[in-house]
């Protein structure tokens, strides 16, 4: 027998608005991130999660209760949290003898687990340890990825894609120079990813272009790659698919380079420079001698044509 799904109809305007906000859109809202605690954690690991939450605010939701969740064995609780709180990204911390200082980053697609990566947090330095001026909340960071593994290794390519999804924030069309204040650096080195956070300082240089300095503001940590559960190529391709309304129609003979400059190609026929109409300038007019010579050439040509036609007629009469 067919299974009949129960459709929940909203009873209030607020409930209807909440259901409509979760429906698919052509341009999706900014992705929300869940911060979940496992049953056992350490104070340093909790401080690490709080620092990451400060970097993600206001697109983050911090859950204060501890949860008996093991995402690599059963991801159903994470999927339920994501469906309930309308979040597609998550970070989870846990601590055990086998996997100390454990940090799991992952994402959901259509409220089901897509992929996740397990890291071991090492050499952690908290945000409060750096006695420098911090950046305002909600600043869009610049992401820098260094290391050949991010280009050549399939696993690290997917991890880079996950980190971009995790920290990129909303998409913008324009941004002012003073808005480029935050840099997040990820360096792949010996099965680890070195996570660093910097503030961009604009110094005077005596010219219109300021001198750039990077000041580390924290947090700082080394993320040792442990386990991963990556999506299949078909599922990854399906998740990256764009709606038809957002696809830009390709224009013939128009291309763009990596810097965003538009180049156009024009196809022109053979140019007859002798008969082309140009601007009638006084300096380009023919002199009186040139006009007389041209008339003389034309008259000589007409006379020679008449003579040749007469010769042809005489030849035809002789033949007849």
Account of the protein in words:
28% of the residues lie in helices and 27% in strands. It has 320 residues and is an alpha+beta fold. It is elongated. Belongs to the RPF2 family. Residues 280-320 are annotated as: Disordered.
Strand content: 25-35%
Mean pLDDT score, rounded?
86
Instruction: Give me the CATH architecture of the domain at 29-229, please.
Output: 3-Layer(aba) Sandwich
Q: Gyration radius, to the nearest Å? A: 36 Å
The DSSP helix count reads 7
Largest sheet entry: 10 strands, mixed
Main location: nucleus
Family: Belongs to the RPF2 family.
Keywords: Nucleus
Biased composition (Basic and acidic residues): 307-320
SSE topology sketch:
Elements: H1 13-21, E1 33-37, H2 43-56, E2 60-66, H3 76-85, E3 89-94, E4 102-109, E5 112-125, E6 142-146, H4 149-152, H5 154-167, E7 182-189, E8 192-203, E9 211-216, E10 220-229, H6 233-239, E11 254-256, E12 262-264, H7 288-319
Give a short summary of the structure:
With 320 residues, the chain is an alpha+beta fold. The strands form 2 sheets. Strands 1, 2, 3, 4, 5, 6, 7, 8, 9 and 10 form a 10-stranded mixed β-sheet that branches. It has a two-stranded antiparallel sheet with strand order 11-12.
Provide the descriptors you would attach to this structure in a database record.
elongated; Rossmann fold; rRNA binding; Ribosome production factor 2 homolog; ten-stranded mixed beta sheet; Rpf2; nucleus; 7 helices; single chain; 12 strands; Brix; 320 residues; alpha+beta; two-stranded antiparallel ribbon
